[in-house]
Amino acid sequence: MREEKKFSAGSWILTIVFGLLSIVWIMPIAEVAINSFKSNAYVNMEPFALPHSESFVGFENYGKGMTFGNYPFFQSVMNSFLITILSVGLILLCTSMTAWYLSRVNSLFCKFFYYLCLFSMIVPFQMVMFTLTFTADRLKLNTPFTIPVVYLGFGAGLAIFMFTGFVKGLPLEIEEAAAIDGCGPLRTYFGVVLPMLKPTLISVGILQTMWVWNDYLLPYLVLDRTKYMTIPIHVQYLKGSYGTVDLGATMAVIMFSILPIIIVYLFCQKYIIKGVASGAVKG
Predict the structure, then answer these.
(1) Whole-prediction pTM value?
(2) β-strand partners of 239
(3) Using CB atoms within 10 A as the burial measure, which of 18, 185, 251, 254 is most buried?
(4) What is the DSSP string of the chain?
(5) d(CA 85, CA 37)
(6) Alpha-carbon torsion 136, 137, 140, 142, what sign?
(7) 62-281 CATH, one of 1.10.3720.10, 3.40.50.1000, 1.20.1250.20, 3.40.50.300
(8) Residue 187 burial (CB count, 10 A)
């Protein structure tokens, strides 16, 4: 009975602590949502107050945010969607195949390449961003259709690490049976291995989606901003003369940018935990 009481008290303490932490994390999002319905003057004067009869402007800020500037906001949205879908798809396909090969071929080169991928995770972006900008310009990787190649290079380290840990726990006998039935490497991968990778595919996909969708610095450095903008870049350009910023419209655009990723995360968060745990304990 004493152990049950201790466990119950401990669980209550953890619930309260994590409840308070969740409020701390949710507060910035709530503040953005509240201020997106207030006039610019009241966002500056009363940033933490709820909208009232004088400060409430309805959806006026959302209209301003979508029509401000010379670059169409919906074009920025489409660019963000295009870059995110192509980048995440390329990362999932290439890194899962690479991880499968590295796990099954036990050679010195594979081990070296695996540790090289892990090393890439700790290299700061600031060390390579100037060289990257020059190289991307020369290779014409400055469009939404080609920048996924750059994202593949930066996202490969974490993805290969997670996929390799999971693949090492898959039974090799299933692949051997497929080979006996006449399946080649590609058919074995797409017909046998890929379906078993579903938990890690989903978790890696969600993590990479959140990163690519919210990324500001890489598109800002690589893309030709006279032709292409993503939502984070569009937010920066919500400025008037002399650098003045309409904070109400800015908050509205930020809400547009964070809502899709919040919805994706809420529906798929359980797969993140499952996939990370699977890749961490196996192998």
Answers:
(1) 0.82
(2) 245
(3) 251
(4) -HHHHHHHHHHHHHHHHHHHHHHHHHHHHHHHHHHTTB-HHHHHH-TTSPP-TTTB-TTHHHHHHHHSSSS-HHHHHHHHHHHHHHHHHHHHHHHHHHHHHHHH---HHHHHHHHHHHHHTTS-GGGTHHHHHHHHHHTT--STTTHHHHHHHHHHHHHHHHHHHHHTTS-HHHHHHHHHTT--HHHHIIIIIHHHTHHHHHHHHHHHHHHHHH--HHHHHHS-TTT---HHHHHHT-B-GGG-B-HHHHHHHHHHHHHHHHHHHHHHHHHHHHHHHHHHH--
(5) 31
(6) positive
(7) 1.10.3720.10
(8) 13
Residue 129: C-alpha distances to residues 68, 142, 176, 202, 214 (Å): 30, 14, 44, 29, 18
Residue 151 identity: Y
Q: For the chain, what are the domain ranges? A: 4-61, 62-281
Tokens of 276: 């990370």
DSSP-assigned states of every residue in 50-73: PP-TTTB-TTHHHHHHHHSSSS-H
